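User:
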Amino acid sequence: MIFPNRNVPRWIILLIDTFIVLVSFFAAYMLRFEFSIPEIEIVPLLFALPLFMVVRITSFLIGRTYAGIIRYTGTTDSLRILKVILGGSLFMAALNPLKYYLWDGWYFLPFSILIIEALISSVLLIAFRLSVKMLYVELRNPRSERERVIIYGAGEAGVITKRTIDRDAGTKYTAFAFIDDDRAKRGKRMEGAPIYHTDELASLLEKEEIAHIILSIQKPDPVNRRRVIETALTYKTDVLNVPPVNRWINGELSFKQMRQVDIDDLLGRNPIRLDDGNTEQQLRGKTVLVTGAAGSIGSGLVRQIARYGPGLLVALDQAESPMYELDNEMRHAYPELKMETVIGDIRRKERLENVFKTFKPDVVYHAAAYKHVPLMELNPGEAVFTNVLGTKNMTDLAVAYGTDTFVLISTDKAVNPTGVMGATKRTAEIYAQASDSRGKTKFITTRFGNVLGSNGSVIPLFRRQIEAGGPVTVTHPEVTRYFMTIPEACALVLEAGAMGEGSEIFVFDMGESVKIIDLARQMITLSGYEPGKDMEIEITGLRPGEKLYEELLNDAENTLPTHHPQIKRAQVRPNTFTEVSEQIDTLIALFHAQDNAQMVQKIKAIVPEFKSMNSEFSKFDA
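Assistant: Predicted structure:
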């Protein structure tokens, strides 16, 4: 084998380098005197040669230019060679005046020879290393056998990505072309590869055999990124993602760090711009309580609130293990943060009262709730006890202890609810809104749809089903849902809480609704399977309480704009606290009888728009 796994001994590299500078020395003389060295220069040449070689070899030993592994030569090795050659040349140049004035009136080496030799030696030493590297790569991974990839992003990250592919002998890929959203770059070349506009991707994939599309842009436009991924999936081309710079190992990108794109990349939208100033003003130095802190939204809120420097952050949940993990995470990420981790159940008022009495929170984010639609349809009493009684407990205590702001985390399923879960969340909204008149506490409600990566999201379910070999189950071919990311949802909750004046319901811009069956197909394709061939999609039918289309506003409601274009204020029918309180007390009292029918009928009386779907409770609808 031409290139064995073990490295060539260093003394051989030193010997080759020595030979190269010797050749460069004579080449410099030949060039300087136009290939005819005068006899008068022969004696000085022979006198200077031994000292020249001593200087060069000594500089190689000091600079350890021979110590690098030649086949992995990089920019650092080339710079080291340039420094060593320049240092040796400067030393020899310094000898010239000494020899001229103190010895015999002759220079040690003419300055022209030193300059020419330094240039030739640098070029040959670097060229030798690069030639060995290229030969090694070609022998290990012949270009003719490599698969072609297209790099999305003809910028700095794209250049680094191409160099990574070229450098890594273990990869069997070569950069065929770049694509970029900037039309001004179209038709140009970068690192030897042509640049095409993003619109040309489909025609490239149709004409050429492309193994991968590599997304190299660090902060791409989500819409354009989604378009590129969808185009690649259409042509059954794998898509890889270059990780963020802060995850590169020792500041350098490796091909092995590139990963398959996630479904989040297909659901991403243009980033929401928020005014951190309002949120910071509300939270800095304050005592903030988050319920449901171990959940997806609750933990996301805890992480974001910590950045604003609260005086005390109280995280409350009844889930012991997730709370333990969150506590460890926060203490590691924010060692200076003053944080209390409280295990407690929002349905136990005496426990909550102790929390309010001890910490006296200025701001409360109430995220604790039951949220799985089919389960709550089977257990309406638990939905009432947690979503209604739990919220009532929190609301009453916030009023009693003078909390400034109370933010209720609600759901799009509270709009025209078709299941018990959504109806109990709407009941909680009504109680919180009506409580705004009871004291100084401002009660604000936020509504949004499904959250990517949350415990109740369909995406983790699809992942598990794909990993198990299928089938992937979809309830109905026409069912659609809205999606947003956890950080995005939490940031909007904080913004809405900071801007609210009390009794508002804020609705977030969820973007476009997504067909769940299309989501399933895309996730199967991203996993390397072909839907309907390698993995089946099974239609199971809508579950109790589910509806085809999620809504963010009741038909009878309108919205008003706010200072933020992606946060709207819903106009809802007003409710007096006395009336609402009596109805909800009656509803909670029914829990003790454990009569599901009576509880659901009472919920329907409180929430007239609640019409059960695919449920035994449909019989109670008019």
